[in-house]
Structures are given as C-alpha cells and as structure tokens.
Amino acid sequence: MKRDDIIEYSLDSHHNEEQGVSIRKKIYKVTIILTLITLVEVLLGAFIKQGTTVWPFVKWFFIVLTIVKAAYIVLVFMHLGDEKKWLKYIILIPYFIFALYLIFILLYEGNSIAQIWSKMLVYLKK
Amino acid sequence: MAGHVSNQIDSKTLWGGKVSPFSTSYGKLMMWFFLVSDALTFTGLLLGYGFARHSYTGSWPIGEETFHSMPFLEGHYPLMYVALMTFILIVSSVTMVLAVEAGHRMDRKGVIKWMIATIIGGFFFLGSQAWEWSHFIHGSDFGKVELSDGSLAVVKGEFGDIESFKVIEAGHHHKVGEVIKHDPDELKHEYQHAVAQGKVKDGIITLHDGSKAKINKKPNTNLKLIVKEYGSKYNVGDVIEGKKAVEMYEEAANSGQANRIVYGANMKQNEYGPQQYAQFFFFITGFHGFHVLSGVIINIIVLLGVLGGIYHKRGHYEMVEKTGLYWHFVDLVWVFVFTFFYLI
User: Fold this and answer.
1) Interface test with chain B among A27, A35, A40, A42, by most B beta carbons within 10 Å
2) Of A67, B29, B200, B214, most Cβ neighbours within 10 A?
C-alpha cells in the first residue's frame, strides 16, 4: 500500500543551473551590502563618542541599519521573502506584537525607575 | 482554497489532512515556529539588558571603551574584534545559503563544499568568542579602583613593567635576598592578584608562600582616572589626570586592603561597570555562543548525511535548508547583539 502520511518536500523548490546563476548573484549582492553596513557601523562607533550632540542620531541610525541587515537576512538568506504571503504574516505578526509591547513596557518602566532612583539619591546626599 | 494550494505543489507534499498549509513542508514550518519562539527568548534577554541599563542611574559601560583589544596586537582597536566576529558569522551565513542553493540544483559536491566552509566559519566564531570571554574575565592592566572617598573609577594609561621582586622576609619557599625575575607578564599577574587580595602594602608584596618582597616596578605613566560611581568627593564623569591620578592610584594599590582594585569580571565583581553588565554579557553572548555550538554540531550531522548520500537518494536536500534556517537565525541574533550590546 502506498503510504500517504509521509510528508515529502515540494519538488517546486528545485531550480536549474541558469536560475542558480541569478540566485547566486543575488546572494553575493546581499553579502556586499551586509559587509558594508557592518563596516559603516564600526567606523561610526569608533569615531563618534557617546554623549556628544550627534550621538542620539547615530544611535537611531544604528537601529535602522540593524533592521535593514535583519530584513536582508530573513527575507533573502532565509527565503522568507519567497514564501507564501500568509506564512510570512504568521511568523512576523505575532513576533512583532510581543516584541514591540516588550520594548515599550520595559524601557518605559526602566526609565521611570531611574527617575525615581535619581530623586532618591539627591535626597540621600542632603 | 485547498484546490488552489494543491495545484502548485507536488502531491507528495500534502500533509496528513490532504492539504499543505502555505505550500510548505511540515519540517520547515515547524522550524519557523521554533525560530519565532527562540527569537522571543533573545528579545526577552536583550530587553532585560535594556531594562537594567535604562533603570541604572550611574554611567553604563561603553562598548568601544570596554572591547578594544585584538589578539597578537598591542594598542587600541575599538570594536574591531567584534566587527571581525560579525563578519565571520555573516560570511558563514553566506556559505550556508550557497549550500542550500547547491542543494536545490541537486549538486551534491557543491553542498559538501559549502557546508564544510560553514562549519569552519562556525568554529572560527566560537574560537573568537572564547578569546573574547577570556579577555573580559582577565580584565585590563589597571582594573577598576575604589578611590579614597569611596568613588569608583576606571583607569586608562600605560602600565609600568615590573622588573623583579626582591625578597626581604623569608617564607616557605623563598629566602631573604633572593631576586625573583620571570617575564614581566607573569610578574604583572602575580602583582595584580596580590593587589586584588590586599597583599600589597607600601611597595611590599606578600607572595604565595608567605614571604615578603620589595617590588621593583617602573612607574605607571599617563594615568587617567574616570569616575564611574560617585563617592563623597567625586561625581560620575569626573576625570582625574596627571600627578594626582598617579598618587591616588598608588594609594589604592598600596593600601593593603582587599578589593580596592578589581581586575576583570566574573559573577561576583566586574571592573567594567555595574555587576549586571557582566551578568548580561555572560548570559547573552553565552546563550548565543551555545546556539552557535549546537548549530555547528547539527551542521556536522547533516554534512555526514550529505556525505552518506541520504538526501540525494531522497531526491531533495530539504534537511540542508532546515539546518540553514537555524544557522541564519544564529547570525540574525548576533546582528542584534552586536548593535544593542556593543554599539549603543
């Protein structure tokens, strides 16, 4: 009897030599982009000191670059960009709901605790 | 709906329920679900770090000041080593995606070649991390010093080499008048150990065997004390330089009190800043390193499968794709650790 409960792989994801050439080209392009972004991050990190007036902008620039890097890794290297639309959504949407909530609540809470503590320290020093 | 999906995929791909959600195989979908949960774990860890940092009122350590050493090289290379580690991991991610691509063409030799390259990259990363940990644990030449007013300061400058210890009081092992000369590094380690334990007083060191010796040391130069935690006299951010800095540092080093100077970091003390900083460093980079290690092991197992021709016989290299997903995820996590732990 032919078993129909064994999950096999979609043969659709095979490609030929020609398609391979263009896929590899894309991979090398993304490699260069990721390397350049890392280089820019390190140079900015080494030359711009924390606490200077431009630092907040640099900090946000770092965060944007990180998200760009992450997007390239997830969408190209992990092929999430080639998957079905709803597969993309069920992976990204729950993650972002949790992550954004955590970012908001923990950093907001952390800042308030720091504020209270610095008031306490002023009081204790008197 | 079901008809729509099954038109596009091979009938063999259907799951038990006769449909294949999202036209993907069971294994790949479950790998994605696992990666989402693992991503949330790392999000939690990095945000725990963010919470500790935002709720801390003192001055938090700065990446480029804490991590500026390179193996085999002297001097200051801010963040260069971590950048190199990041680059190694990105390259090994690229070789992995090339292995997956070769698998899609049923090119067994290509898969083997690129998987070996990926595994080598993984080992390079693990080795780099071991060096980084060892450096972090051992600490700098000067350590973190508690000044006479109770404030804590980190120290920059050049360490004057120790030339010898001249024994002035005999112990179990050394006799009076003996001059102990190893290479300066070894003497430095012995000296730092003694300072941390409070066994150096007024230029006299108590050695392991109980003997006492006079320290013959070149003076430290260009000392700069940067206050990181306030005391009764100095505030966070104060910088003490010149002769005064040397005097204040020497006072702490020669006080004969334990823990006035702390070298390196462990679970109980940390020269770089608040204790949580070391804890988060060990936990986050350690947990990530553990992921890299398990990734390397899984890659090796899959490589053995490829060498044995298992996947070729099966007609597809999906296993390479699944371990590839995990490997890329490890790279993805490092991208975030690099930004949030080292850069900002």
Assistant:
1) A42
2) B200
Based on the fold, state whether residues B46 and B116 are members of the same structural domain: yes
Q: How many angstroms separate the CA atoms of B38 and A95, rounded?
A: 10
Contacts of B31 in chain A (CB under 8 A): none
B57:A121 CB<8 A: yes
Which secondary structure element, helix H or strand E, spans residue B206, and what is its range?
A: strand B204-206
Residues of A with Cβ-Cβ distance to B50 under 8 angstroms = 103, 106-107, 110
Give, for B262, the enclosing helix (H) or strand (E): strand B261-262
Residue B268 has what DSSP assignment?
S
If one counts the domains in chain B, the total is: 2
**Taking the mean position of all CA atoms in its chain, how far away is CA B125?**
11
Answer yes or no: is the ipTM higher than 0.90: no
> Tokens 């230029």 map to which residue?
B203
Residues B134, B283: one domain?
Answer: yes
pLDDT per position as a tens digit, B314-325: 888 889 999 999
A18 in contact with B, Cβ within 8 Å: no
> pTM for the full model?
0.86
Alpha-carbon distance values, B248 to A108, B102, B220, B270 (Å): 39, 63, 12, 21
Of A8, A63, A121, the CB nearest to B12: A8
Residue numbers of A between 22 and 61 with CB closer than 8 Å to B? 23-24, 27-28, 30-31, 34-35, 38-39, 41-42, 45-46, 50, 59
Per-residue pLDDT reduced to its tens digit, B32-75: 999 999 999 999 999 999 999 999 987 888 887 788 777 777 77
What confidence tens digit (pLDDT) does each residue in B210-229 have?
888 888 888 888 888 888 88
Q: Are residues B255 and B309 in the same domain?
A: no
CATH number of B59's domain: 1.20.120.80
State the nearest Cα–Cα gap between B115 and chain A, in angstroms: 15
